Amino acid sequence: MKCPACGLALAEMTVGGVKVDLCREGCGGIWFDHLELQQVDDVEEAAGETLAAVSPAVDASVRPGGARACPRCGHPAMTQHRYGPRSNVLVDECNRCEGIWLDGGELAAIRAEFTSGADRQAATQAVLDEMAASGNERILAEEQEAARQAGPQVHEPFILYVLRTVFGMDPRKQA
Asked: pTM for the whole thing?
């Protein structure tokens, strides 16, 4: 497989039973097949420490802007969205094979956002509770504004992604 960010070959690496594809010689990005990232994204998960410590090569060059193609299935444009509620980390996800691409340093940033898996779950529940209490409008507006500020590379605000994929609803289409 080729790195979607810098074009170099990805190398397989197994850490704590999780097999990932790593851009060791280039940008330091990591490809996770469906549901693999959830096994290393919390600071409590020791397997993620090794992967979070991966750094880009000194002379790494990342291709600028635009949608990236999926390194696993070749889908031409992965969707970029925030990793979690109010997360500052933008990840690339393939809508076809559901794998996730993290640029170099993004796994460390994800692991640093919450001190435990329980904290991450509490933050998610708080967002869902706010949505239920407010009728979704305010939170949806905040997510859309955050996506606008992040720039045109963000195709869908995270909260819309969650509502659409987890709950099967799209507030943009509700009357």
From this structure: 0.74
